[in-house]
Amino acid sequence: MNSTLNLSNVKKQQLYSFLSGFISENKKNKFEEIILQRTRYITVVLEDIFQPHNASAVLRSCDCFGIQDVHIIENNNKYEINPDVALGSSKWLTLYKYSAAENNTIRCLQELKDSGYRIIATTPHKHDHTPEALPLDQKIALVFGTELEGLTPQAIEMADGFVKIPMYGFTESLNISVSAALLVRSLTGRLRNSGIPWQLSETDSLDIRIAWAKSVVKKADLIEKEFFRKTDRGN
């Protein structure tokens, strides 16, 4: 089958329009509304999260606050989604899994660095910035560690900065799902009120809307094949 990654934006728009013919007007309007609020300027990285409830709650928060990409590192623990908590949010996100390398943390974070992201470790043990003061002049990858042990030494070493949620009680740290929600809400709110170009590119917007359409259209693969059959025959 033709890969959408290799298509021109014109052809992608034609494919999306074709798939949209099988989607309700309400759903199409929702796609167009939500895509304008999606961003890849901030991304979330989850390192070895093993509790399905927390992992799924993080996905839900990312969807709610417009974070499109979530990077999942599986060194020792396989990432599992609890559908009762995620409430279908995973199908609206772009998930990247890292499980093939000897050290998936290094691979993931280096790839993000190479893509222009500043690696920000979330940890209660180092104080660099609060969410309100963390610089947004560069793309940010927020890295969250396991519930019990936090981030690995490799993640801490590769971090370009640290962020800590101020707390004033006896408890040292928050549940990871709560921490993720607070940080993502704070940073995306600041981003939207800034002059930074945080919205998706035209290509990313098309790719994501095509993926969304495929997730809701029954027998989307067959419909996509029919699109290429018709358009290839017309060339």
Secondary structure blueprint with pairings:
Layout: H1 9-20, H2 25-35, E1 42-47, H3 52-64, E2 69-73, H4 83-86, E3 94-98, H5 104-114, E4 118-122, E5 140-144, H6 153-158, E6 161-163, H7 176-192, H8 202-216, H9 220-234
Parallel strand pairs: 1-2, 1-5, 2-3, 4-5, 4-6
Describe this structure in words.
The structure is a single chain. Helix content is 44%, strand content 12%. With 235 residues, the protein is of the alpha/beta class. The protein folds into two domains: 37-197, Alpha/beta knot (3-Layer(aba) Sandwich); 200-228, no CATH class. A six-stranded parallel beta sheet has the order 3-2-1-5-4-6, with helices on both faces. The longest helix has 17 residues, at 176-192.
Task: Give Rg in angstroms.
Answer: 19 Å
The CATH superfamily of the largest domain bears the name: SPOUT methyltransferase, trefoil knot domain
Question: What is the overall silhouette?
Answer: elongated
Number of discrete domains: 2
Largest sheet: 6 strands, parallel
Please provide the count of β strands.
Answer: 6
- Spans with pLDDT under 50 lasting ≥5 residues? none
Strands side by side in the biggest sheet? 3-2-1-5-4-6
Q: What distance separates the N and C termini?
A: 17 Å
Structural class of the helices, strands and pairings?
alpha/beta
Q: What is the residue-mean pLDDT, rounded to a whole number?
A: 89
Relative helix content: 40-55%
CATH architecture of the largest domain: 3-Layer(aba) Sandwich
> Beta-sheet strand percentage?
5-15%
